[in-house]
Amino acid sequence: MRRSLITFLALLVTAPVWAGRLTGSVRTPDGAALPQLVLNVEGRAGRRTLVTGPDGGFSADLAPGEYRIGVDAPGFALRPEPTVAVADGELHLDLTLAHEPLREQVQVSATRGEAPAASVGVSVSVLDRDQIDERQARTSLDLLQQLPGVDVARAGGVGSQASAFVRGGESSFARVLVDGIPVNQPGGLFDFGSALPLELEQVENVRGAASSLYGTDALAGVIQLVTRRAQPGERPELRLEAEGGSFDWQRYQGGSSGRAGGFDWSFGVLHLATDNEVPNNAFRESAGALSAGRSLGERGDLRLIVRGEDSQLGTPGPTAYGPPDLDASFERQDWTLGARYRHASDDVVHTAQVGWAKSGQLSLDPKDSGCFVPSDGVHSADVPFCDLADPLGYQNDTERLSADYQLEARLGAKNLLTGGAAVEHETGEVGSRSDPSQLIAPERTNVGAFIQDRLVLGDRAYLNLGGRVEHNGSFGTRAVPRAALAFRARGGPDATTLRASAGAGIQEPTFLQSYGVSFYAQGNPDLKPQRSRTFDLGVEQRFASGRGLAEATYFHHDYLDQIAYQVVDFTTFQGSYVNLGKTRAQGVELGLSLAPWAGVALGANYTYLDGEVLVSSDAFHNPIYDVGQPLLRRPRHRASAVLSAQRGRVRFGATLVYVGSRADSDFLGIGLTENSAYTRLDARLRVRLGAGFEAFLVGENLLDRRYQEVLGYPALSRSIRGGVRFASGRRS
Fold it and tell me: Which CATH number fits domain 106-224: 2.170.130.10, 3.40.50.300, 3.60.40.10, 3.60.15.10?
């Protein structure tokens, strides 16, 4: 009995005394919380791994003593790594990470919550506020063109119809979000033509099927535009800008942002006018954007998002092969409105959001401009092309009302579970106003629920498992999964990260495909969803003490059950829609980023795409859609490079874009099936003048290449624009 008592007392004396508690939070310099971040805590008892919770918080019971805290997050650092003394009671420590020379990007699209891009296992590209400001792009489409795996095509000058193709998918195969609010038209279409980079905080692109989180439309990936927000500590600022240049370019812009107490705001307004280069291609747009937030207590906040644009565009048609249509035009009004409430505790975050997206589009062609024989100067069509007047116009008005709730909760020390539900109600008025019998007013309601588990395995592997069940008003109920893994093979500033992901995507039919009433294009209510199966494998290597980053990714996407128009009766040419088409897209994405010296940054990427038609979806036997043909308007080779350098008051930037030859068609009977490669060089110069003023000069297509992003529609030749901007409080 005495021996047992002595043994018990000895164990009691030598056992650790868990008398102290370390708590805290981790934020980026921009104030974003970082969930699932690995912290290394080293002390006398050895090394412990802590993982932050859904709002960036952490806690641990520790024996009294000194501990050094480090972080495993490529692109971020704790400088210096803090050493803390833990004693009886609780010690609270709020940590702010510092950016490495090549900063890590924090995105939300891949996981529906803040996460460092290197830890999600999914292919993600991010342009932050500084990069967007440095590029000085005319439109948002010009920003997307600089991302790997994204091809763009614009039918003419600024404002003209524009499409983005992610990893060989159709232009409707990417979910487009504005601050988390879906803005695609029902069926996935989104025209980037009038989307201007007004008050943008971030542009995010997730490549690979993401329907497990977002439901319909995310077959090939996600594109998200995030409205600018005032940063922590940002003082109120007024911004004014005026710009003029080639093709009667005029742009006037103003805005303000700041914080006061628990309120923050950022808003901007813009007016743009340009005549472009060909007759009847003038573009006019007025736009505005607002992001305003209000703190509600210590852990809650409410945010309001508003974006709107009103534009008019002359549409002369394919002027490379015939005379311009001098009376056709296109009018568009887009609105996005959203409100989000977020409440966070140490272990649980609740988010509720409602959104409304409206697009009103009207194509007008009041006069019959006659007929002409299309020709490229060498070959001519066999039959003339005739203009068909539509004096009342063709309208495409759609609305999408959405609401969703999301819960993020810590399960155990290293699991973060995310779950939620969403409902979307879609309505529209689509068809020619000249024939009221063809004007349809459909509506459709979609409901979905998803779950996602983000796990840290050990202290080097990040596993993401998830799935969604979606009930769609057209095709019924489907389930889609996704899995992703990021493995840190080596840590530190020269970290090596391996990643892999796989998923499935679904997409609903358009309103016309489901509900059309035309005899020649009747809707099919029994259509199945278009589907995708995707996977990729990649590696990310940082080098030169964090000043260099190289990436390589192999991807394979299969697009199945693609909806195709089919002639049912060749006697009457009655037609409808069926699930018929199948395509494949595979390839490699390479990226390189360098920050060799202070103030100098270089980025480059290259995409090789092997796309092929496996089952044709063309009812009219255009050879461009034959089995074995490459995918329309998606080049096999594409590359871009961006240079930025700053010294003192002067900042210089340049962008070089190469787009290889690609399959295309004139669709006028000339018989063209290929569009030539082109190279475009843009450059920018900015000089701070003092007292908050800055002058800038931008040159685009400086090599004056004559090319067409879409056959028949010449791109703009060399252009120069310049202006001045003012920001109150900006240092000289």
Answer: 2.170.130.10
